[in-house]
From TrEMBL:
Top-rank taxon: Bacteria
NCBIfam families per the UniProt record, alphabetical: PRK05692.1
Domain Pyruvate carboxyltransferase: 3-270
InterPro entries in alphabetical order: Aldolase_TIM, HMGL, PYR_CT
Enzyme class (EC, first level): lyase
Protein name: Hydroxymethylglutaryl-CoA lyase
């Protein structure tokens, strides 16, 4: 089985870090990911710099990334101004977020869920005209930090509504790491029925140690793209206790042992995770860098 890995450390990973990371180091992180075999990178977000200061240099990052054949770069976009910036920066993909609950949507994007759907529809039309790959991400699809449980039926109704704009890809995001494999299977089955032509993608956080179990469930249910962050860094600045994404190197170890092909070298990602920890001045959450591969390399 083949699976595509979307590396999100440059965007979702770094956006929550308190210490500013230089543009050069962000570019080097992306370079190292590409050198390890990653072919899709969520590199930047085009949001107001006062809201997410770590992403203020999005244009400079995109100006410096390598552009080998087969590698695509995504930018997170919330509004028309963000899409204008994304187009000028020559991204290959846009990721547009619709939040499953009104309270979190207002805090994250300054609009209700219904208004978020309207924004997605307008941005999707513009992005399609520009020839960009369009992903719509349903944030807080498994639970909200402010409203609590999110019913699968309400998420699937939201999927039905966003699917009307014919997204290339639909991503289910467990923004605060509360999902479980049974809910993952339920939602993926629903997405496949409602939007059969869309690529299925999942974004998991390991906040409560369910992220990797959810990743396996997603693959078995039909997801073909998984987000992961080198080192397991990341989180949402607008969601309390939304700690790290599943770690790219740990996920790759799991997938490699399962015989799932990604084309990404876990060893090189592990080295990047260790480099990233040195850059951030703290250990990263990923475990492969501590335990090492199995079987161990010959000495």
């Amino acid at each position: 089985m083949d699976l595509t890995l979307m590396e999100v450390a440059p965007r979702d990973g770094l956006q929550n870090e308190p210490e500013m990371i230089s543009t050069a180091d962000k570019i080097r992180l992306i370079e190292r990911s590409v050198e390890a075999g990653v072919r899709r990178v969520e590199a930047v977000s085009f949001v107001h710099p006062q809201r997410v200061p770590q992403m203020a240099d999005a244009e400079a990052v995109m100006a410096g990334v390598p552009r080998p054949p087969g590698v695509t770069y995504a930018g997170l976009v919330f509004n028309d101004r963000g899409l204008d910036r994304a187009l000028a920066a020559a991204v290959d993909e846009v990721n547009i977020v619709v939040v499953a609950t009104d309270t979190f949507s207002r805090r994250n994007q300054g609009c209700t869920t219904d208004e978020g759907i309207e924004r997605w529809q307008a941005l999707a039309e513009r992005a399609a005209a520009a020839g960009l790959h369009r992903t719509v991400t349903i944030a807080a699809a498994f639970g909200c930090p402010f409203e609590g449980e999110v019913a699968p039926a309400s998420v699937l109704d939201l999927i039905r509504r966003v699917a009307a704009a014919a997204p290339d890809e639909i991503a289910l995001a467990d923004t605060i790491g509360v999902g479980t494999p049974d809910r993952v299977r339920t939602l993926i089955a629903g997405v496949a029925a409602l939007a059969p032509s869309a690529i299925l993608r999942c974004h998991f956080h390991n906040t409560r140690n369910t992220g990797y179990a959810n990743a396996v469930a997603a693959i078995e249910a039909g997801a073909r793209v998984l987000d992961a962050s080198t080192g397991g860094i990341g989180g949402c600045p607008f969601a309390p206790a939304a700690t790290g994404n599943i770690a790219t190197e740990d996920l790759l170890y799991l997938l490699d042992r399962m015989g799932v092909t990604t084309g990404v070298d876990a060893g090189r990602v592990r080295e990047t995770g260790q480099w990233l920890g040195e850059l951030l001045g703290k250990p990263v959450p990923a475990l492969l860098g501590r335990a090492g591969p199995f079987p161990a390399a010959a000495v």
